[in-house]
Specification:
The protein is mainly alpha-helical. It has one domain (2-69, 103-188). The protein has helices spanning 2-19, 24-36, 38-68, 70-97, 110-122, 127-141, 148-175, 177-208. It starts with a helix and ends with a helix. 35% of the residues are buried. The model is unreliable at 100-108 (pLDDT under 50).
């Protein structure tokens, strides 16, 4: 039981710290919260966290394979470059087309917000290698074994740690009422720049590590 608590807090902390830096998912959570309301931002965050739980489970299943075949990790990173480039152009185009208009409440299906969160999280190809490496590290430390409860705690704590950060982003931006409109107008530019930064970081990881 003690090792499960250690595993939970260690994985929760790792997931939390990995989600804190501004990126595609947390900035979109803030954007959804500002434009469509706090409830939709939370539903979006739940969608993201659900996909991260699934990705963490896949990472557990294939962690050994990934480390025996490092070329697979390189392939995933190269696929991530294409995704980051696409979203950099996509968000920049949205920002250019967006017209300044009074803020209004938009009626959006919460189901749509949930699946949008799952979809964007699914496009983050670096999640699986990250949790595969984390799983291998915990396994080497003796914190996790390939048993049901160990795997269940690992994947659930990964989802909870990610959701905690997304929730903070959602609430934080939602409470900044005076700055909401400015953030809404510039959020697509911010996301476009972030995608370019992630693209450059991924290129550096591929060619200089």
């Amino acid at each position: 039981m003690t090792h499960l608590l250690t595993l939970f807090f260690a994985t929760f902390s790792a997931a939390f710290m990995a989600t804190v830096p501004p990126g595609l998912l947390n900035m979109n959570a803030a954007k959804v919260s500002v434009e469509k309301g706090k409830a939709n931002g939370i539903i979006f965050s739940l969608g993201v966290s659900t996909m991260i739980v699934l990705q963490a489970y896949v990472a557990v299943l294939i962690s050994k394979f990934l480390f025996r075949h490092p070329e697979v990790i390189v392939w995933i990173q190269k696929a991530a470059i294409a995704v980051f480039a696409f979203f950099a152009i996509y968000f920049f185009t949205l920002a250019r087309k967006q017209k300044q208009k009074p803020r209004q409440v938009i009626a959006v299906s919460r189901k749509n917000s949930f699946f949008k969160g799952m979809f964007l999280a699914a496009l983050n190809f670096l999640t699986i290698p990250y949790y595969s490496a984390l799983n291998a590290m915990w396994n080497a430390s003796g914190w996790i074994q390939f048993e049901f409860w160990d795997i269940a705690v690992f994947i659930l704590s990964a989802g909870c740690g990610s959701f905690a950060v997304l929730y903070l982003y959602t609430v934080y931006f939602n409470k900044l009422e005076p700055g909401n409109s400015a953030f809404s107008r510039n959020s697509n530019y911010i996301l476009s720049v972030l995608m370019l930064i992630l693209l450059v970081i991924t290129l550096i990881r591929i060619y200089y590590t």
